[in-house]
Amino acid sequence: MELFHQVYSLRLSGRLYLAPITQNPRKILDVGTGTGIWALEVGDLYPNAVVIGNDISPIQPRWVPPNVKFEIDDFNEPWVQPQGTFDFVHAREVHGAVEDWPQFCREAFKVLKPGGWIEVAESAVQLASDDATLPLDCALNSWLRNISDGFEQLGCTAVVGPHIEAWLRGAGFEHVRVEVFKLPVGLWPTDKTERDIGAFNLLNMIEYVEGASLQIYTKVLKKSLDETRKSIMDVQAEFKRKDFHMYIPYYVAYARKPLSSI
């Protein structure tokens, strides 16, 4: 997860978020915090703020700054925080775990103060190429279809980016904006920054392919271990190909709870 964080940091030029927060937030919620790296860094950025990171898995560090707190919580259940608690709610890469996105957005709306901001950042479960160097029938595209099918069978929506604006508006948010970035994968870019992002992202994806495939292929799609291992090797090999000029679309959506909300 730290590698993913490095990729996003490079892509956003070191910024931790894009939401146009004009005043120092006093209470921040990081939903699905994972290892807690974003919560820790935003806690350092705002030392006078209280930062809470929640996740269903207790994989966060035990020793943290006094203004950062981690909680075990399931965001698919009704959120336990009181209404109007937070100035900023942040969620990143939770698409493999959210069972009901409209409800997720409504819960975030509830716990935000009037005028508070939400930001949701999600990578697409797809690869794209601007120069048609990624064949439609490659192992990568087949693998992505299987991973998406697996997410759907688990009750989680794999395709988030194109819908997040409608979900946020449906929950009552205003000033909704969605920015889409390209996350190159591999060493093919000629620009140094793009190449650095591609190098980190390649390491991310090589690692992610094995973990996701072993979970989705064997436990959800009921594929044999031999078939799964072959798919892993084929996909990892294609990720390393410099002639595949591929990238992952990365959606960052942010919106404000109206000041008139009660």
TrEMBL record:
<dbReference type="Pfam" id="PF13489">
    <property type="entry name" value="Methyltransf_23"/>
</dbReference>
<protein>
    <recommendedName>
        <fullName>S-adenosyl-L-methionine-dependent methyltransferase</fullName>
    </recommendedName>
</protein>
<dbReference type="InterPro" id="IPR029063">
    <property type="entry name" value="SAM-dependent_MTases_sf"/>
</dbReference>
<dbReference type="GO" id="GO:0008168">
    <property type="term" value="F:methyltransferase activity"/>
</dbReference>
